[in-house]
Write a structure and sequence with these properties.
Length: about 475
């Protein structure tokens, strides 16, 4: 810290001790004018002066630390963006508040944390009452959360788009395994769209220019990915009105949420077009939901196949009701859809004993797990990692773990149940929806105590489980 202006902090320390400027200046060994300039930020607080200030006022030099200031800025940004998502607060304003009025900044952060704890308790109560989609939180939902709830309310099935996609598949004479050729012809002949390979690296996977009617696709895309991006663009060009109608009949709170919903529905249509409902359901049942065989047959990736399987809930032709989830190494859930009301906790993350996290330790392998929730329901889960990148040396890449699960009563329909002790009550791994709402009191992997339960603290005992509750 060679040159820092900390006048407000210096003045607050002096006033807390009831000292005048002249008295403080004498104690530190500075002239009155020099000290006055420090408090008015006309001179920087240098390291030699800081050492004297620390000794005179009896405070740790950390009070003036730039690292401490940076942490406070980050905490304030998180608090304000969470509580008021639409607010746009410049970094300079946050820096000024952290530098000039750190106590006020810390009070703001403390208020946010207390509000967050109250919200967590309320959400945990809703979770325990079994209302997985009800949000009692007083904080506004983020736009992506609104869209996630939109699909959850439909059990991840949009019949209007599935039907339209099947009809278009037949009308355009598309062929399984080579959908891209037919889609390119449809875009060119029906919509006069010229498809080109994007010249820039890195580049967006898909960029459409309405004025020139050019569709640019990244050169690193696989045939299946190219087909998906063309199908998405076709959804907006040919079924934009239907997609907008679905958005308009839902009370989204912002234009951002409505736009995200349009993209989600466009992607849904693309998946339904390259993997038509009837053909996928027939193949899935005959192949016992073998994901690798299905993705080879339809020429798509592992994640697209899993997501499509989680949407097969047509009233008169239902597939296995799957739950679909995508997480990163840090446990952040970036996608989650459920054909039924599987309980994804909104509070405190998911269970670390879930095999979706073990998948990162064995990349590329499909892992199986029988898992039992605290209410006694047992599920069969399969999980595997997937990676996406733009290719080339040192190019950025993203890796996720994909998990697909179903109630154990459907397990025999899946090839992945082979060799598992489905009838053995001791075989399933006990998991929970998330530590803060999990009722398992003896879990050694617990990260947080359960919300709303009184802790039993005894300094004379130590158990494997980190928290004991009454």
């Amino acid at each position: 810290m060679s040159k820092s202006f900390m006048g407000v902090r210096l003045r607050r320390l002096r006033e807390e001790r009831g000292m005048s400027q002249s008295a403080a200046a004498r104690a530190i060994g500075l002239s009155a004018s020099y000290y006055n300039q420090l408090e008015n930020d006309e001179r920087p607080l240098t390291v030699p002066v800081l050492v004297k200030v620390s000794a005179v006022f009896g405070v740790d030099v950390q009070v003036f630390s730039e690292e401490e200031e940076a942490r406070l800025i980050a905490d304030m940004r998180e608090a304000l963006s969470s509580a008021v998502p639409e607010a746009s607060i410049a970094s300079a304003e946050l820096r000024q508040l952290a530098s000039s009025m750190p106590a006020l900044g810390r009070a703001l952060v403390t208020m946010h944390r207390r509000l967050r704890e109250t919200v967590d308790r309320a959400d945990a109560m809703a979770d325990r009452l079994g209302d997985a989609h009800h949000v009692v939180s007083s904080l506004p939902r983020m736009p992506f959360e609104e869209v996630r709830d939109f699909f959850a309310a439909r059990h991840n099935h949009v019949e209007e788009l599935d039907t339209a996609a099947e009809q278009l598949f037949v009308e355009a004479r598309l062929r399984i395994g080579d959908v891209a050729t037919g889609l390119a012809a449809r875009l060119t002949e029906r919509h006069r769209v010229h498809i080109e390979e994007a010249p820039d690296v890195p580049s967006p996977q898909r960029r459409y220019e309405p004025r020139t009617r050019r569709l640019l696709l990244a050169g690193h895309l696989s045939p299946g990915q190219r087909a998906f991006q063309m199908a998405t663009q076709l959804a907006f060009l040919e079924f934009g009105g239907s997609i907008q109608g679905l958005v308009d009949e839902t009370s989204f709170s912002s234009d951002e949420a409505r736009s995200l919903a349009r993209i989600g529905l466009g992607n849904y249509f693309a998946g339904a077009l390259i993997m038509p409902y009837g053909l996928v359901l027939e193949a899935a049942e005959s192949l016992r939901y073998d994901i690798d065989l299905l993705r080879q047959r339809f020429g798509v990736g592992f994640e697209v196949t899993c997501h499509r399987l989680s949407t097969l809930q047509r009233a008169n032709a239902r597939g296995v009701p799957f739950f679909f989830i995508r997480v990163d190494r840090a446990g952040n859930i970036s996608k989650r859809q459920s054909a039924t009301n599987f309980h994804f906790s909104r509070v405190g993350g998911t269970c670390p004993l879930w095999n979706v996290y073990e998948a990162f330790a064995q990349p590329g392998r499909i892992l199986r797990q029988l898992a039992q929730m605290p209410d006694g329901r047992t599920y069969l889960w399969i999980a595997r990692t997937v990676s996406h990148g733009s290719g080339g040396y040192a190019a950025p890449e993203k890796t996720f773990a994909i998990a697909l699960g179903c109630d154990v009563r459907h397990a025999e329909r899946l090839v992945y149940s082979k060799g598992l002790a489905l009838d053995d009550p001791s075989a399933p791994t006990p998991i929970g929806a998330g530590c803060k709402v999990c009722e398992r009191t003896a879990c050694p992997q617990r990260a947080f105590p359960p919300i709303g339960r009184k802790l039993v603290v005894d300094e004379n005992e130590r158990h494997l489980a980190p928290y004991s509750v009454a």
